[in-house]
Amino acid sequence: MNLLHVSRRLRPLVLGSWALGLLLSLTVHAAELPVVKLFTTGGTIQSKGAHRQKLAEYSDGKVSPEELIADLPELKQFATVEPIEISNIGSPGMTTELLLKLAKGINAELAKPGVAGAVVTHGTGTLEETAYFLHLTVKSDKPVVVVGAMRPWTGISRDGPFNLLNAVRTAAAPEAVGKGVMVLLNDTIHSARFVTKNNTYRVETFVSRELGPIGYSDSDRIAFYRTPLTRHTAKSEFDISKLETLPAVDIVYGYQEASPAPIEGLVAAGVKGIILNDSAPSFAKATQFAQSKGIVIVQSDRKGSGRVVLSERTAGRGVITADNLNAQKARVLLRLALTKTTDPKELQRIFNEY
């Protein structure tokens, strides 16, 4: 038997060993990757337009969780992504039922030892409300990142896939542990407590007024520069595990010569709390009447930044101040706070701490 014949006989064995080694290497690599749960709720990031230049009015189809993942093979470099669909709707359609389902689902998955973090897809219109709700109700230090897009999945210059990739990178990053719930779009990481949507159309829409972002998802690493000091997630006192609904709270807008009719109507409807997003002299009698019916009044502000300072006069009237929460976030907090207390002093403590 010549050497050529021997080499031909041994080649399958050598190649087989090499392939087996590669397979084992890939298996070990997959086992070492962190597991990130992808909770999908819908929004622009999962919407399809009629054509690639259709960057508005895109309701021509929906993208499934599986399509999101298949479209991004780069995800496999950073995490094993496992999808869980909650809904596939626009963000104005988010309901209390869906919020509770989402929060309970995240809590259940993050309680598993093998799960590193979670990502939530969401429409941008009410994204900050859902993110803040999760910030108050997720009972884990593991990262949760809420992500959206300003352009549809089919758009010629879509931002959703890159936002999603960076969200998974952030959720898998050890440095993100303990930061609470975060919002990530346009390479920028914000705390859910301080972020708000600032522009109707531009990709740089999300900002944290006054305080700024907490980090960035850059190409070399996930870079953090600060941590929120308000109470959240694992340190939150709110427990939604046995809740099926939340108290009704609504918002009344203040302006020159504002009518008290909305307040009167909400009293008649039986709400448990009202957020005033600005003060108005015409509101005085209506809010006093609402308080006489046991309805909690919280004073926020329409300017978009700055604290509502607690004065002796405000405290004397039993009105709660929202600190620097905008009206929509104040509503989220009040709904949860009312599951624990209606005492004005306790409610003010909660608004001061969260």
Helices and strands in order:
Layout lengths: L2 H30 L2 E6 L24 H6 L9 E6 L10 H15 L4 E7 L5 H11 L6 E4 L12 H13 L8 E5 L2 E4 L4 E2 L8 E2 L7 E3 L4 E3 L24 E4 L8 H9 L3 E4 L7 H9 L3 E4 L12 H5 L3 E2 L5 H11 L6 H10 L1
Parallel strand pairs: 1-2, 1-3, 3-4, 4-5, 11-12, 12-13, 13-14
Antiparallel strand pairs: 5-6, 6-9, 7-8, 9-10
Helix pairs in contact: 4-9, 6-7
Widest beta sheet: strand line-up: 2-1-3-4-5-6-9-10
Q: Average pLDDT, to the nearest integer?
A: 92
- Separation of termini? 81 Å
In the CATH hierarchy, the architecture of the largest domain is 3-Layer(aba) Sandwich
Please, what is the CATH homologous superfamily of the largest domain?
L-asparaginase, N-terminal domain
Strand percent estimate: 15-25%
Count of separate DSSP helical elements: 10
Q: What is the structural class? A: alpha/beta
Care to count the β-strands?
14
Give a written overview of the molecule.
This protein has 354 residues and is of the alpha/beta class. The chain has helices spanning 3-32, 65-70, 96-110, 127-137, 160-172, 261-269, 284-292, 312-316, 327-337, 344-353, and strands at residues 35-40, 80-85, 115-121, 144-147, 181-185, 188-191, 196-197, 206-207, 215-217, 222-224, 249-252, 273-276, 296-299, 320-321. It has ten helices and 14 strands. The chain has an eight-stranded mixed sheet with strand order 2-1-3-4-5-6-9-10, with helices on both faces. Helix 4 packs parallel to helix 9 and helix 6 (261-269) packs parallel to helix 7 (284-292). The model is unreliable at 1-28 (pLDDT under 50).
